[in-house]
Q: What sequence folds into this?
């Protein structure tokens, strides 16, 4: 016989899980505990006949061979039934959402997972087995789910609970019934008990959190302590509570918590109870009430996890201004840094704070020239670096202030804004006293991946650099593309290092230690260190950027790692890998770049990113094509909105980005994408430059170019400008535009070559040999010839001949030279050039294949 059991004082989650288990084990009998919770009693008073329910005395326990335990994993809380079970004979199946402990039964099958409600686990299993759920059953399951998660508001709620709830609603769960029975009004005796508990309560305040301990003694049993605990938390607003209630010969201990920092389970376990971190309970028979209460009081401090402090969450270094800074300049600085206020210092001491509101009022009255001293808020509220996050939050609310300067020994070391508090509350959590990012992989180590993808000599060099940083107490990181590629799984040996300290001094130290040379860029706080082995590493100080106007070049200032990463183009490029010895290979990801890589998304870090630097739109397209990613919806929308800023960007900057983009593997697709976004309209001043015919020409160029370079592995790619030449063909002002985009003399030369080849295109009609092509094309570059053949849409036969010619001309040998011609008594003159060119043509025609052939040809023609 199979039976389904749950705990005494049965609640909706336990009952719903029993009913759900019956669906999975249809032959099992539902055995109610002798005591149910008040809310469930009310429900069963109406719906009892809808279920086939048994009481323990209706079961022949000698015939029970299998027990399904739900919402419980031990026999301690099933009541007197535990004495009726032959534990040696019975096998157990367990479904539970409480933390496992040593008292759990040894089950043949156990599903114990820390979800918000046990019924979630059973709904998931029914769904996976495609078991049909009626609307009434869905309502029962949803009652258990809603009550045990506080309608998805309790901290133990997981995404799986929400998915289960959504599925139950799809199955027809009745929210009216759920609402009616999940909110149970207190009966008279319950109200009296709650009043007594609140009357006999004491608050314990430790490290920024409030814990209520309430106690009560009575002779008769009153159920519903779990409901009373929830009500008391709502009424008092404390972070956690413990009830110690003596009822006759039994003492009940109930713990509830609403804070990640408070785990009530350790205290409950002292009394052999169970549950989870946020909700647990125990019962002691014939215990000493005062001793139990004393144990609870004395153990409270031990269940509180360390708090985040002001020092953990503050922004540092702090942007400050002096008392003599003008209102106008202060306003510009606020715009520059995106701040809404600045601390004001005089002689190194904090004397006030000036806000955006103060600035605006002063400017409205024409006082932009006046110093901020006369308009700042004096006697600012400050905090010590050791103040807990909870205390900071309460102080901000009580004082209604948006920023709190952080002091140590009267020195300003940081500042906390509302944003800092919000990020700490919703972006981070505490685990074993350490701060970790909740939804980003800050604990992820890429050390093993580094060993696979970074050459051994460079990896060892990075470790040694990390050791040198340790000696200076600098935090040192690899940043940028190399980190991105490590996450993706691509090789990249282009190493950039940023230090939270003086990057230039650090580069000099490395050169002194390892040898090599250092090239310094003082304005940007950067240095390039060339190792004696030839390895080049860019080393920078952590820095931030601001732009005086859209599309301007950035100004740079020293800052923290977070701000350094925030100034970068996309989240996938805004990650860092720590190389200090203790944390070597640790990924630092403030902006969820790791997640975006996994989702194949290109996402900017802030809304004005494309406005400040429109060339980032070209970079976004480049990364889309290179990695097969896509801009996320908002980034694409902002690219469309900001595309007009391309027109005010210098041609040199645009050409630099274009040259990189068009040297990638997908230049045609990139140009097509730029056209879709609207970049080409502002880039070259035309909306009709990318029709179907132009697209076909670009594709033909790419195909022919690739076919030729496949046979020439040593060829250096200079073809990027040719894509622009084809793109601009037919444009009224094409030559001038092309010259504006040319990066160097080589690009200019290619532009001129393509234009000049056009003069001889008619000569190709009668060409049948490669040597004849050589006479026409010898002086022209590889790229110009390919571009010419596509622009003039030469027939496939002529293209094939040009392809053969370009491949073979690379290896034309110099069989003879000027000295050989002198030996043949041919006086030096321009005839030498004619002879040597003629020999090259004959070689391509397979008529001269050796030095002997060349000498014989010259003798026969020129020495008679």
A:
């Amino acid at each position: 016989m199979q039976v389904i059991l749950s705990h005494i004082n049965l609640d909706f989650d336990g009952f719903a899980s029993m009913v759900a288990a019956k669906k999975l084990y249809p032959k099992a009998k539902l055995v109610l505990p002798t005591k149910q919770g008040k809310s469930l009693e009310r429900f069963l008073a109406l719906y009892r006949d809808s279920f086939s329910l048994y009481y323990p005395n209706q079961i022949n326990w000698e015939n029970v061979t299998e027990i399904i335990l739900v919402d419980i994993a031990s026999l301690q809380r099933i009541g007197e039934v535990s004495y009726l079970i032959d534990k040696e004979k019975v096998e157990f199946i367990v479904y539970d959402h409480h933390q496992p402990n040593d008292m759990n039964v040894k089950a043949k099958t156990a599903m114990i997972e820390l979800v918000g409600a046990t019924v979630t686990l059973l709904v998931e299993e029914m769904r996976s087995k495609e078991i049909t759920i009626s609307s009434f059953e869905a309502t029962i399951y949803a009652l258990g789910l809603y009550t045990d998660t506080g309608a998805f508001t309790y901290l133990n709620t997981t995404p799986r609970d929400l998915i289960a709830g959504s599925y139950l609603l799809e199955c027809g769960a009745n929210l009216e019934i759920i609402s009616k029975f999940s909110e149970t009004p207190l009966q008279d005796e319950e109200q009296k008990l709650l009043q007594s508990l609140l009357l006999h309560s004491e608050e314990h305040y430790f490290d920024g959190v409030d814990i209520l301990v309430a106690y009560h003694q009575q002779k008769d049993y009153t159920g519903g302590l779990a409901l009373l605990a929830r009500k008391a938390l709502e009424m008092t607003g404390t972070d956690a509570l413990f009830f110690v209630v003596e009822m006759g010969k039994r003492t009940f201990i109930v713990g509830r918590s609403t804070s990640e920092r408070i785990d009530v389970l350790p205290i409950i376990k002292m009394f052999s109870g169970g549950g989870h971190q946020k909700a647990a309970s125990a019962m002691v028979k014939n215990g000493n009430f005062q001793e139990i209460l004393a144990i609870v009081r004395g153990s409270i401090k031990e269940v509180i996890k360390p708090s985040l402090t002001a020092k953990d969450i503050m922004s540092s270094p702090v942007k400050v201004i002096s008392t003599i800074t003008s209102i106008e300049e202060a306003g510009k600085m606020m715009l520059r840094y995106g701040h809404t206020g600045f601390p004001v210092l005089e002689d190194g001491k904090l004397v006030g704070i000036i806000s955006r509101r103060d600035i605006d009022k002063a400017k409205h009255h024409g006082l932009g020239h006046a110093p901020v001293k006369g308009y700042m808020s004096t006697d600012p509220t400050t905090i010590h670096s050791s103040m807990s996050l909870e205390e900071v939050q309460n102080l901000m609310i009580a004082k209604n202030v948006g920023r709190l300067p952080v002091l140590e020994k009267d020195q300003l070391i940081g500042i906390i804004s509302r944003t800092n508090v919000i990020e700490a509350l919703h972006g981070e959590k505490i685990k074993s006293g350490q701060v970790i990012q909740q939804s980003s992989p800050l604990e992820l180590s890429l050390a093993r991946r580094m060993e696979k993808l970074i050459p051994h000599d460079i990896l060892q060099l990075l470790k040694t650099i990390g050791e040198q940083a340790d000696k200076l107490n600098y935090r040192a990181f690899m940043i940028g593309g190399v980190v991105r590629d490590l996450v993706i799984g691509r090789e990249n040996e282009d190493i950039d290092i940023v230090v939270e300290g003086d990057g230039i001094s650090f580069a000099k130290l490395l050169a002194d230690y390892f040898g090599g040379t250092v090239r310094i860029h003082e304005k940007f706080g950067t240095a390039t260190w060339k190792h004696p082995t030839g390895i080049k590493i860019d080393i920078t100080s952590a820095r931030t950027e601001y732009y005086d106007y859209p599309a301007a070049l950035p100004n740079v200032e020293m800052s923290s790692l977070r701000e350094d990463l925030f100034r970068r183009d996309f989240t996938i490029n805004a990650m860092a890998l720590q190389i200090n010895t203790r944390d070597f290979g640790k990924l630092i990801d403030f902006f969820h770049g790791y997640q975006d890589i996994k989702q194949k998304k290109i996402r900017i870090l802030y809304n004005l990113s494309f406005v400040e630097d429109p060339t980032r739109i070209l970079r976004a397209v480049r990364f889309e094509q290179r990695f097969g990613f896509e801009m996320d919806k908002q980034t694409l929308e902002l690219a469309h909105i900001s595309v007009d800023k391309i027109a005010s960007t210098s041609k040199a900057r645009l050409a630099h980005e274009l040259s990189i983009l068009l040297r990638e593997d997908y230049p045609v697709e990139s140009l097509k994408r730029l056209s879709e976004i609207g970049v080409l309209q502002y880039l070259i001043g035309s909306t009709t430059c990318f029709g179907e015919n132009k697209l076909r020409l670009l594709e033909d160029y790419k195909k022919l170019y690739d076919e030729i370079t496949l046979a020439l592995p040593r060829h250096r790619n200079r073809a990027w400008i040719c894509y622009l030449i084809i793109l601009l063909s037919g444009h009224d002002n094409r030559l001038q535009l092309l010259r504006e985009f040319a990066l160097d003399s080589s690009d200019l030369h290619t532009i001129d070559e393509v234009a000049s080849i056009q003069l001889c295109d008619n000569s190709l009609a009668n060409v049948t040999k490669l040597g004849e092509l050589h006479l026409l094309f010898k002086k022209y570059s590889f790229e110009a010839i390919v571009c010419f053949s596509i622009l003039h849409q030469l027939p496939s036969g002529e293209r094939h001949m040009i392809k053969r010619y370009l491949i073979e001309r690379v290896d034309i040998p110099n069989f003879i030279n000027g000295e050989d011609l002198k030996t043949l008594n041919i006086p030096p003159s321009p005839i030498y050039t004619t002879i040597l060119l003629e020999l090259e043509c004959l070689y391509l025609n397979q008529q001269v294949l050796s030095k002997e052939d060349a000498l014989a040809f010259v003798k026969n023609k020129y020495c008679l």
Notes: Residues 818-862 form one domain. The first helix runs from residue 12 to 24.
